Amino acid sequence: MRRLQIVVSLSILMLLLGLPACQKGIDLTPEEAKAISSEAYIFAYPMLENYKTMFMSAVWKESPVYDAPFNQMSHKSTLLGPEFTAVVRPNNDTFYSMLWMDLRAEPMILKVPAITNKRYYSFQLIDLYTHNFAYIGTRTTGFAAGTYMIAGPNWTGGTPAGIDGVFASEGNLVMALGRTR
Predict the structure, then answer these.
(1) CA distance 67 to 73
(2) Pick from 126, 170, 171, 121: which is nearest to 143 by CA?
(3) Which of 101, 143, 151, 178 is the most exposed place for a label (fewest CB within 10 A)?
(4) Ranges of the chain whose pLDDT falls below 70
(5) What is the pLDDT of residue 17?
(6) Is the same domain home to 98 and 153?
(7) Cα–Cα nearest to 151, from 130, 128, 174
(8) What is the pLDDT of residue 84?
(9) Element (H, E) at 109
(10) What is the spatial distance between Cα 151 and Cα 163, in angstroms, rounded to a whole number?
(11) Is 70 buried (19+), middle (13-18) or exposed (0-12) by CB count in 10 A?
């Protein structure tokens, strides 16, 4: 897997470096090429790591950390320890749920039940750029039951009846990382 990550990273860097160099009359010095490649790596690294997480947990079924396909939620029924590495530094007193959403065709609806015992829960909504663009949970939406629509950047339709909130993502691939304490 590390080799695949290196190949993808180098492919992106070559593409980024190749575009300006292909234009007539533009020459890059080794120092300029190094500076551009460093900036490209820093810019692309979070997306590559998040893509790797998505691939391992929602696409590659033989992965040791595969959870479920796109648009299907999975739940961990045991507490996680230090041997779990799919999520960086997981809480060891928190149950996790995960949902990778593919919003290219249409938005997804996430329904949460009422929480009557004041138990903490949250769904952190993370786009492929690693932006945390919204949270659904006790600190942001409260303890009441709720129905929320998560829409991608190209969605132009209306909001269905019964939706308590709409969250728009910059990207079409979104992870909802659920935590329940």
Answers:
(1) 8
(2) 121
(3) 143
(4) 1-25, 86-90
(5) 54
(6) yes
(7) 174
(8) 72
(9) strand 108-112
(10) 12
(11) middle
